[in-house]
Amino acid sequence: MRTYTSVLVGNLVFATICCFPGPFALLLGYIAWREGEDWAWLALVGGVVYSAVIPVVAFTTARREFPRVTRRDRVTDTRVSYGDDSFVVCAPRSGTGPAEARLVRADVLEASFVRYDPDGEATFTAYYGNYAPDEFTPLIRMRLRVHDVEEADGADGAAGFEITDEWRVPSLCLSAVTAGRLVVLVAPAAPASPGDPEVPGKVTPQWPRSALLAGTRTCRVIGLDGRTTDVTRRCGRQLRQMRISREVGGVEMVGDTIDLRRLDGHTAARYTVLADRDRALPEERAPVTEQGEEARWIVDHLPGEPGGFGSVGRGWSRRGGHLVRARFLEMRGTNTFQDHGPVLDTVLRIHPADAMPPFDAARRLTVPMNYLTVLHRTREVVFSVSPSGRSYVIDWARTNLLAGVTAATVIAPDGQELPVTGCPDVIWSLMNLLASHALSNPAPVLDLRQRRMSAVAGTLMEVVRGGKTEMKAVGPNT
After folding, report:
1. pTM of the entire predicted model
2. What is the pLDDT of residues 373-404, one digit of tens each?
């Protein structure tokens, strides 16, 4: 099992090789000093300065590479408060499009992976001033049904038009494709040539707005009376709010909240009309995922660690190491990338064991691309906690299994296969039982027929049977 110590030692060795002139200058200076040479002090000072770079580089790179959270990462700035179900996504802005373009909803009927071919290997690649370089932005082919009736927002099945094209999808907005709901700008229709019927204008996806409409980013509105309303996945109201925001040049969201008391009177009044309309005719929430997700399932083509029940070190388990769950509260894009995912500024809420109060931590992390595709339905993450309780390490294999990125299956002692994908509480209980008994199972299939599982097979089967009522179809993997 990869540990922080092993990563640090490897980086120390690598940094020493890269900075070998430092130790060499120290040796040369020492020899010259023994010989009484006047220039010995120059070599010694240069060697000390150059050698001091080695541990600095090693510790810095180890922290970047290893997803560990410690006390130093705890959030102390509480200017923005988050509820337990809040989630903020700050993605690169999309093009504004022509002023006369219409902002409407589009449903993703089909999506297929076209290309994602970065050439950065395992290193960090930075693009100064560019938060969505083509090299690190997947190209996805989609068939969209673009709604044509703005007032109904397409909820009544009003006629629109279909279009198939290829678009670059920022990694932080991939979940909008999986969820099946986008916000697009449609340029005015124009005839292909004089006398011909009009053809639909250019369709430009609005990716940050799409993440909001898909429910990946939560949204609340504080009215003039101070009352807070959750409008997450209320697509009609959100589209109307977006149109107002576009017309006035943008409306600020603090965290996931729009506070009408901070807006100018005219804009606040327009938002209030929407709120009154919503109270008079309440809108049902859209589903977490639109029907036909299997036709939009691009997860398997994107990089990221495959899910598994996890590896366990015997010493770690014996000394009191354990697992805890946490939740992402915020993700902000940066201009740095790795092949398997973007480097993001994140805020997490970690729930320690033993009924200790949760705490928030801010950490820059590389988040796998395959995990980002299911952000609309889960933001949970699994941490492996050191026996001392001072170090929390993200376990992406367990996280991706819990999130449904990889299908989870239990094979009963009698050979019956029991799918548990979409049952996070069942999977979580199985992971904890395996960890407490120091049983490693890095694969997503838990085979209870194995001899080493015999001591806990009965308990594990009780967990699976007890969770059958939770099972539900959440994707093509079930």
Report:
1. 0.86
2. 999 999 999 999 998 888 899 999 999 999 99
